[in-house]
UniProtKB/TrEMBL annotation:
It comes from the Bacteria. Pfam families: DJ-1_PfpI, HTH_18. CDD domains: GATase1_AraC_1. It comes from Kitasatospora indigofera. PANTHER family: ARAC-FAMILY TRANSCRIPTIONAL REGULATOR (PTHR43130), HTH-TYPE TRANSCRIPTIONAL REGULATOR RV1931C (PTHR43130:SF3). SMART domains: HTH_ARAC. Residues 211-309 form the HTH araC/xylS-type domain. PROSITE patterns: HTH_ARAC_FAMILY_2 (PS01124). This is AraC family transcriptional regulator. Keywords: Transcription, Transcription regulation. GO terms for molecular function: DNA-binding transcription factor activity; sequence-specific DNA binding.
Amino acid sequence: MHRIAVVAVAPVTAFDLSIPELVFGAAEVAGGPAYEVLVCAPEPGPVETTGSLRVVVPHGLEVLAGADTVMVTGSGSRAEADPRVLAALRAAAGRGARIASICTGAFVLAQAGLLDGRSATTYWVQAGALGHRFPSVRVLPDVLFVEDGPVLTSAGLTAGIDLCLHMVRADHGASVANAVARLTVVSAVRHGGQEQSVGRPVAAADGRSLAATRGWALDRLDRPLSSAELAAHAGVSVRTLHRRFLAEAGVSPLQWLLTQRIERARELLESTDLSVEQVAGRSGLGGADSLRRHLVQRVGLTPRAYRAKFARPGRRP
């Protein structure tokens, strides 16, 4: 079982600290848990948070020694982290563990030298401070998360959920990740390059949500769909459709459609014995060459390699 060690750096952001157990704890493979999540700190016991809560952390840093993935969640402190934490992070990275941070946990990774020469992100409010303090880090302030080799960083709060779902998808495929997303009632996929919602209006609260139109489109992914058709279903102009899609989904309508088509193709490759050409047709990606190109761009695997890695036993025809 994949072991994930989550490092709480006081004063810890309680929401961030809850994310790994929420997401990874919901992932199941072959009827059993896919991950073991262990929360740790330099000293086990009560740990201060950024609010009025206190959390009790059960483990010490020794759990990092056997972890496959090590995550540092957000902290309200910008001071130099405990030397024991930095040493444990360097040791984990040195033996090849996957390293990740949520929100301002990126500052701790940077202090350990694990972001030197890498691209990274953090909560947009703190992105400037991260770049100023650690000039060897290429800070990308407008994305949800960044994967640079074995080191992953996310923006604040719910972007941490996106990062964890991305990791589940990379480890176990789209079907497992989508099942986790349904259980946790979050968007199944928001890719790292999507912008953080900085200064963006929230979705309309007057019953004009595009949820019904998105559902209508999901039922028709095997057909060509244009912005004009989506706008007609929503009863708005194409210009209004684009504006409201950006507000609600964070991407344009056609970008959203492409992401859903690729996600549908991944699930079909995992769960069926359909040919690559048939998978491309049912997901609306045109043909096998188009599917191959998009899948390689998105996950770095051809359809055949993806199926070999993630296909489930007992696939249906």
